Amino acid sequence: MDANYCFTSTLVFMRIVGGEFGGRRFNPPAKIPARPTTEVAKEGLFNILNNMLDFEGLKTCDIFGGTGSISYELASRGAIDLTLIERDPTSIRFIKETSKTLGILDKMHIIQGDVFTFIKQCQDAYDFIFAGPPYALETIDDIPRLIFEKNMLTAEGFFVLEHTPRNDYQQDPNFIKMKNYGTTVFSFFSPPQP
Q: Would 2 disulfide with which of 105, 131, 132, 142, CB 3.0-4.6 Å?
């Protein structure tokens, strides 16, 4: 759900915007059921994250992985343990092929399955979690609560949820800030600090 598409007259491609793989382009299959995140929004997100996180050595989780775009950006900046959950088999094949091309397949834990089942069974804690669910997902508002109920973040970790302006998480006890890029909004959450 986090695909980043650029359009030309004959080609649709996804571009990695920064880090070691910055500028690399990939052509996702046309039938991947992923909602595009604009390049402006993704670049803005990582500009903010650069001031919040040291990516080097991070353990990350990308739920609703889509084309894997967010995970490639994280790996490009130094994350070394990347879990990605996506249900669509075509998307999974593309993610595996792209990860192999980038030489990061050994760093990726690619799980084909339901995000909510994964969260329910999760025993790990991550330094950074990103969720780019379908905007119309009826249970989107449950995601922050479930992440924190399952203690999926490390003590200094961050969770980012991508959503539209019609969702508002400012009253959530773990909410810290949000950034709006038109129809794309990123809400940032972190565990309570002592």
A: 132
Q: Cα separation of 6 and 14, whole Å?
A: 6
For residue 90, give the DSSP letter: H
Phi, psi of 75 (to 5 degrees): -65, -40
Q: What is the pLDDT of residues 132-148, one digit of tens each?
A: 998 889 999 999 999 99
d(CA 31, CA 29): 6
How far is 86 from 84, CA to CA, in rounded Å?
7
Beta pairing partners, 194: none
User: Using one digit for the tens of pLDDT, what is the confidence trace for 161-181?
Assistant: 999 999 999 999 999 999 999
From the CB of residue 51, how many other CB atoms can be counted at a distance below 10 Å? 6
Q: Tokens 């992985």 belong to which residue?
A: 65
Structure token digits, residue 125? 């804690």
Label residue 190 by pLDDT band (50, 70, 90): very high
Q: What is the pTM of this model?
A: 0.92
**CB-facing half-sphere around the CA of 160: CA atoms within 13 A:** 25
End-to-end alpha carbon distance in the chain: 34
- The span from the CA of 56 to the CA of 108, in Å, is 15
Tokens 């991508």 locate to: 162
Q: Which residue has the higher pLDDT, 3 or 185?
A: 185
